[in-house]
Amino acid sequence: MPELTALPAGELSAxxxxxxxxxxxxxTFSAAAVVRSCLDRISRVEDAVQAWAFLDPELxxxxxxxxxxxxxxxxxxxxxxxxxxGIKDIIxxxxxxxxxxxxxxxxxxPTADAAVVARLRAAGAVIMGKTVTTELATYAPGxxxxxxxxxxxxxxxxxxSAAAVAAxxxxxxxxxxxxxxxxxxxxxxxxxGYKPTFGLIPRAGVLCQSPAFDQVGVLARSIDDAAxxxxxxxxxGGAVMRDAASADGTPPKIAFVKTPLWDxxxxxxxxxxxxxxxxxxxxxxxxxxxxxxxxxxEWHRTAMEAEIAANFDAEWTQGRDRLSASLRGQIERxxxxxxxxxxxxxAQIAVVxxxxxxxxxxxxxxxxxxxxxxxxxxxxxxxxxAFCTLWTFCGMPALTLPLLSGANGLPLGVQLVGxxxxxxxxxRVARWLADAAHDA
Amino acid sequence: MPELTALPAGELSAxxxxxxxxxxxxxTFSAAAVVRSCLDRISRVEDAVQAWAFLDPELxxxxxxxxxxxxxxxxxxxxxxxxxxGIKDIIxxxxxxxxxxxxxxxxxxPTADAAVVARLRAAGAVIMGKTVTTELATYAPGxxxxxxxxxxxxxxxxxxSAAAVAAxxxxxxxxxxxxxxxxxxxxxxxxxGYKPTFGLIPRAGVLCQSPAFDQVGVLARSIDDAAxxxxxxxxxGGAVMRDAASADGTPPKIAFVKTPLWDxxxxxxxxxxxxxxxxxxxxxxxxxxxxxxxxxxEWHRTAMEAEIAANFDAEWTQGRDRLSASLRGQIERxxxxxxxxxxxxxAQIAVVxxxxxxxxxxxxxxxxxxxxxxxxxxxxxxxxxAFCTLWTFCGMPALTLPLLSGANGLPLGVQLVGxxxxxxxxxRVARWLADAAHDA
Lengths: 440, 440
Known about the structure:
2 copies of one chain form a homodimer.
Chain A: H1 17-26, H2 31-49, E1 52-55, H3 57-72, E2 84-88, H4 115-122, E3 126-131, H5 159-166, E4 172-177, H6 183-189, E5 192-195, E6 215-220, H7 223-233, H8 237-244, E7 254-256, H9 267-280, E8 284-286, H10 296-311, H11 313-319, H12 325-336, H13 339-355, H14 357-362, E9 365-369, H15 386-394, E10 398-405, E11 411-417, H16 423-438
Parallel strand pairs in A: 2-3, 2-4, 7-8, 7-9
Antiparallel strand pairs in A: 1-3, 4-6, 5-6, 5-10, 9-11, 10-11
C-alpha cells in the first residue's frame, strides 16, 4: 500500500514540523491551510490506517484559525505555532475525550490538559486529535494498522501516534514508553522515535501505569522535528536541543551492544545491521553489555507488573471481565509480587546505570537493534518490546532512526542510546548517523 | 539523679548553642574552652548516662583548636563556629567509626562524611562524637539511660542524642526519625526535638532503613537552638529559620487533635495536657482527626517493615542470629509484604496530607501528645512511638517542647505539627507556645 506512506508531493501535509512552523511564521501559508491539508490527508488514508481514537476536524480548524488570528494580531509566536500534533489517547486533553484504550474509560472527559498538552498549547501547537493506544498502554492492540502494510501491526502501545506520522496525517505526535512503546512502533512504521531521559518530560495528566518506567516520547519524520517537539516538552528542553544541534561533523565513537537478546534478532535484520556497521567502519566498535544488566528484563517485568497491579486496581476491581487476557495476566502476576522483590528490582536501576559509566566514558552512544525485525504480520500482537527494555529500565535517552529495511521491504529502526541526561549527545550522534547512513 | 540534668551554672557546657556561637565569635571564650567544658561535663555524667558510642576527646579538641586558629586568621565564620554537636551513630563520619548500633557493623569506618556532617563542618561545628542509637535505628535499645532517672529509658532510637543534650554534654545533637525516633527521646529526656518537613534535610550518608519515612531531626535545649541547627542542615534552611523568627506575638490558632490513640494516654499526661490547654484558653480548639488518617498506623507499619526487610537484607543474610528478636520479627513480616499493599500504603501519604488541608487552612498548627506518658521504667524498651507515627508518615514538620511533667516528676513533651513545608509556621507557633506555657 505505498499510497499510505508515499507523502503527496507539493501538499503541506507532506512537510515536516520545522518547515511548517517556519512557513506559518513567515506567512507563506496559514495554520488553517496546514490543518486543512492534514485533514485532507487523514480523510484519504484513515480508513486504511485507523490511527485516531478521536478527531474533530472543526475543533482542529478552530485552533488553526485562532493561531492565524494570533499571528495577525502580532502576538509573539511559539516554536510550534500552528503545527498539528497528534496526542496519544492516554494523555489528558481538556477539550477532547481521553479513553486510555479501554472500554472501561469510554466517554471519559478530563477536566484539565496534561502538562505536555499545556506546554504544546503554550508553544502554539494545534492539538489535532487523540491517537490510538493499546489497552491502557499495555499489550492488547487497538484498531490501528501499519501504513506500510495494513496486514501488519504498527507496534504499540503508541500505535496511532506512529502510524499517523508515518502516513503523513500529522508531522508530529506524542507517545509514551514504559517498555518499548515509542521506539517499537516508530521502528515498525518507519519514523523517528525519541524518548528523552526519564524525568525530563513531566507526566502530570498522563495515565499512570508504572511510575518507575513511564516516560513520554515523541514521533516525527526527521531528527530535527523530533528534537523540536521534545524541546517544547522537556524541562529545560530548549537548551538541550540547541546543544544537540551543535554537531561539528567529527565522527562520534559508537559502541555496538548486542545484549543477551541477540539470538532473537531475525536474519534479515542481522544482515541489515551488519551492513550498516560495516558501512560506518571505524566509528563503531562492538562492546559487551555490562554483566550487571543481565537481570534487567526480569527486574523490569517484576516492578512493572507490580506497579500495573497497583495502578489499575480500580479497573481490576470494577471490570476485570472487560480487560484483555494479557492485561489480566499482568495484573494477576503483579498482585503476587513481594514488596521485597519489587524494591530489589527498583534498586537495580541505579546499579545498572552505574555499570554503564565506563562504557559512556569511552563511547558517545550505544547502537543496538530497536526491534527483533520488521513489523510482524497480523494485528493480534504489537510485537516484542524487549529490545527497548534495558534502556527504558535505566531511563536512558533512546532514539530510533528508520535507516534500514527488512527482506519484506518494511522499515526497520536502529536504536541509539546515551547516558541519562546525555540527550544532546545522543541527538548529535543521531544526526551524524543519519547523514552517514544516507551516504551509503 | 538531679545532678545529671541540673546544668552547672557558670560553666560553658551549660550554655546554649546560640550563646556559645556568639561568645566564640566575639572572642569571649575560645572553642577549645567550650569543648573542654563539655568534655569535663561528659567525664562527670557519662558513666551514669552512657550517651556516647564513640568519643575521642583529642579529636574533639583538635577540631576546636583548628576552629580557634581559623578565627584568629580572620576566616569568615560559620553559624556554628566552634559549637560541639553530637551525631547519632547511624550518620557517617569520615574520621570516626559509624557502627549503626549493631555488632554486625562493629568497627565500621565510613570513608566519607554524611551530607549533614559535611554541612556541620562547613558551618564550623565541632563534631563531638557519635551518640548511641538503638539497633539499626529500630527498637532494640542501646546502653543509654535517661538522665532524669537512669532506671528509665531515654527513648529511642536517637537515645544518645537526646540524653547527651539533656545532660548538658553537648548543646546540640543530630538524630533521625522513621517513626518516633527524635520526638520520643526528646520528650522522655526533657529537651526540644524537631523533625523538619520530609526531604528538607539530605539523607546521603545516613543509614537507609525505610526511605519513605527516614528523616533527619535535631535535639537542643531551646527552640532557638533547634532552629539554629536545623537551619544549617535544611536545604534553604537559613531563610526558613529567619522567617520562623519573625513572630509578631499574635496568638496563633492551634488545633488540639487527640487521634485514635487517645485511650492510650496515661492519666497524669491527660491531666497535664488538659491543664496546658485550659491555660492557653481561646487559642486552642479541639478538632477531630480527618477520617482519611485512620489507617495510617497500619500503612506505616506495612511500608516501613517492607523497606526494612529490603534495606537490611545484607544483615539478615549474613547475621540474622546476631539481630534482636524484635528486628528479626520486623524483617520477617516485611519480607512477606506484597508489593501491592506496599504501594497502596505509600500512595496514602499524599491522600492523608490532602485530608489535612482544610484543617491547616483554619489553624496554624496541631497540638497533640508526643508520647503516651513519661519515660517508662526499665531499659528493655524505648517506649511507644505511635504518637509520632501519623506525622512522620505524612512527612509533616513536628516539634516536641518539654513543657510538662508527669506525676513521677519526669519530663513530658508536647508535640506541635504543621503542614509540609510549613516549618517556619510551626516554629513560630512553638515560640508562642513556649512563652505562653512559661507564663503559667
